[in-house]
Amino acid sequence: MSILLFAASIAVTLVLYRMGFPFFFVFLFIPLIPFFRSGKKVKRCPACGYETVSDRVEFCPYDGTPLHPAGGEDGEGHH
């Protein structure tokens, strides 16, 4: 997804540059935003899909289910 955003931002930047708006190089940084995250791990509710990066939240506020690490990090016991 980031590669697609990067390609689209380059295309937009080139079009706007040719129109006389060279300051639109900022669009090149949009795909890089996910890489500047604070490094916090996302926790997800297996029942409803609620996600949070808060270290304080251990249970889903909607259904009370214990939260698990999101993505491929929950290798043990995910059903």
- Total helical elements: 1
Strand order of the largest sheet: 2-1-3
Please describe the biggest sheet, giving its number of strands, its sense, and whether it closes into a barrel: 3 strands, antiparallel
* Overall number of strands: 3
Shape descriptor reads: elongated
Question: Topology of this structure?
Answer:
Layout: H1 2-18, E1 43-44, E2 51-52, E3 68-69
Antiparallel strand pairs: 1-2, 1-3
Which key terms come to mind for this protein?
single chain; 79 residues; alpha+beta; 2 domains; three-stranded antiparallel sheet; elongated; disordered C terminus
How is this structure best described in words?
The protein has 1 helix and 3 strands, in the order H-E-E-E. The chain has 79 residues and is of the alpha+beta class. The protein folds into 2 domains: 2-36, no CATH class; 38-73. The protein is elongated. Residues 73-79 have low confidence and may be disordered.
In short:
The protein has 79 residues and is of the alpha+beta class. It folds into 2 domains: 2-36, no CATH class; 38-73.
